[in-house]
């Protein structure tokens, strides 16, 4: 008899060429501490040994893990979108989210996301926010930090939403029909799809006459570490502003 707890949440972990950065021990400890959370690893057309590592890890943790192999590489946006849709279609659970494979946001932050959703029924999504506050350890590359502040300010002005950090790779959502509809079509951008998720939700809420206030919760992280080996390049940052314009055209305020 299968005694694996029914998952309350599935976390999608997009992976592209993560063979040398895959933290098997951290994922193992997390599964032991959160037995009702399911990890869905999405191999995004990796060209190294990532797929083999994921297959081996999932075989060691049946019931709590699964693997979705996407070929060829389609970018993080598609890996997350397809992974979350797959999770909602095939796995039970009231919440679904995504978490960067490099664990810049440590997995031990997850319980705080869960607590927010359990305590605040009006909240539809919880976003991690990388805010350098006293008593917290948020270590970011200075150039990335200042570029991120410029980008976040631009996003806030474009959406009419005072969001501090749209790009943190740790987010958890209620698994609703609205979320499924938001994810149904491919995103405009390979990298700033987080902004498009917000734009799609805002469009949906406004179409129904709903006030967005209180539906999004930004959670200041206790710890966030800028892990070397990021796939995002300067050219991607520059391209992101063009993508913002395309998102604005598709989802005007």
Task: Describe the protein in words.
The protein is 41% helix and 19% strand. It is α/β, with parallel strands linked by helices. A seven-stranded mixed β-sheet has the order 3-2-1-4-7-5-8, sandwiched between helices. Helix 6 (177-183) crosses helix 7. The mean pLDDT is 91.
For the structure shown, list the relevant keywords:
single chain, alpha/beta, 7-stranded mixed sheet, two-stranded parallel sheet, 8 helices, 41% helix
Order of helices and strands: EHEHEHEHEEHEHHEEH
| Main beta-sheet annotation | 7 strands, mixed
Uncertain spans: none
Task: Report how far the terminal alpha carbons are from each other.
Answer: 52 Å
Q: How many strands appear in the DSSP assignment? A: 9
Task: Give the integer mean of the pLDDT values.
Answer: 91
Instruction: Give me the side-by-side strand order of the main sheet.
Output: 3-2-1-4-7-5-8
Tell me the overall shape: globular
Quaternary organisation of the protein chains: single chain
Q: Number of DSSP helices?
A: 8
Helix content: 40-55%
Topology:
Layout (H helix, E strand, L loop, with lengths): L8 E7 L8 H10 L3 E8 L5 H11 L4 E6 L5 H15 L4 E5 L10 H10 L5 E5 L7 E3 L2 H18 L10 E5 L2 H7 L9 H15 L8 E5 L2 E3 L8 H17 L3
Parallel strand pairs: 1-2, 1-4, 2-3, 5-8, 6-9
Antiparallel strand pairs: 4-7, 5-7
